[in-house]
Amino acid sequence: MGDGRRYVGAGERRVRLGLRQRLAGSARSAGPEEVADALVALHGSDPATVFLAVGARLADATRTVSETERALYTDRTLVRMHGMRHTVFVFPTELTAVVHASTGLTVAARERATLLKDMAAAGAPDAAWLKEVEESALAALARRGQATASELAEDEPRLRERFVYAAGKSYEGTHTVSTRLLKVLGVEGKVVRGRPLGSWTSSQFRWAVAPAHPELDVAEAQASLLGRWLAACGPATEADLKWWTGWRVTEVRRALAAIGARAVTLDEGTGFVTAEDEDPVPDSGEPWAALLPGLDPTAMGWRERDWYLAPGIRPALFDYSGNIGPTVWWNGRVVGGWAQRADGEVVWRLLDTEGVGREAEEKIRAEAARLQGWVGDTRVTPRFRTPLEKELVAGA
After folding, report:
1. Contact present, 260 and 275 (Cβ < 8 Å)
2. Which GO terms describe its molecular function (predicted)?
């Protein structure tokens, strides 16, 4: 290219994706900690996504549930907490301080201010009262180890008090103090979600006191997080980085400068890689297929997705809020979607058949059988349902 920058085409980006996202067969991981470390973060808005995303990347998927539960609830090497874009993720525990400082502090201040404003508008008690309830609830949680909101309210009854939110508006509702306060405490990094009440697909979580972590400088934490993500997902555009982090563009640019990121040329324009990642990544020729869950961190990893997801098939794979559903991948591209029917059968449909021949279909079929094998008797319904997923479940 005339500007001296290296051009990184869609083909090389797909090779990088297969290797660094642990999807190519030779790149699969030994355990959930390796998966989370490689991806930086696992989407946790839908609890099942965490397990399905891990299982798709393990060399031995039969250990998915037991090993992921061990990491989350026994060893605590993985933590479910709020992160980028005010979304729940699962992070390696050693990354919690970085996430908290780089993305959580700003959101936390806004959330607490909003809660206090809503309570004041409803004539509820003031900030001093809320602080007293908060300290009492945290002490009760520390004594119990893990607890639901209802269990904490047995120790601190004021958590049950209700106030009207957005009175007179179309979205008016009634919230308990516990519902809003625990959310704020989660964003502030004081509590995290613990073991669910049900199976690994359950969204009814207990709460636990967050692991202690040092308070980091915000700019340094942002540079650290962006560097880790760029190593896993680069090259990426400035728009990708801003979207994934939820930061202001000035913060993204400051972090890029801090890590000495290198500019490259993409089909979308200027992209960035880490200083250690400028060399081309050769294609080994290893073909791979994957069935990834809704909200998978790879499918949701970039704002600009044309290089791995054809625009024409998007309407079938996304819900109305922009959440991606279960996807079928072939050699770094989304080529279709999948679903699990009531009888447990994993079914799939191709939407983009370019370059998808007999070998691809055989490998996709093998991945569907692999998934169905380790999921067993569990039935998984995505939290955010998409047109294709609904059609496949209905047998259409």
Report:
1. yes
2. DNA binding
> DSSP string of 175-217?
EEHHHHHHHHHHHTTSEEEEEESSSTT---EEEEEPPP-----
Task: List phi, psi (to 5°) of 36.
Answer: -65, -40
Say if residue 319 is exposed, middle or buried (CB neighbours under 10 Å; 0-12, 13-18, 19+): middle
Write the pLDDT tens digit of every residue in 224-271: 999 999 999 999 999 999 999 999 999 999 999 999 999 999 999 999
71 and 111 together in one domain: no
Residues 266 and 360 in one domain: yes
How confident is the model over 106-120, as a mean pLDDT?
88
CA distance 310 to 336: 10
Structural domain span for residue 222: 1-75+216-396
The sheet carrying 78-82 orders its strands as 42-43, 88-92, 78-82, 191-196, 205-209, 146-147
Cross-strand partners of 273: 262
Within a domain: 168: yes
Domain assignment present for residue 295? The answer is yes
Full-model pTM: 0.93
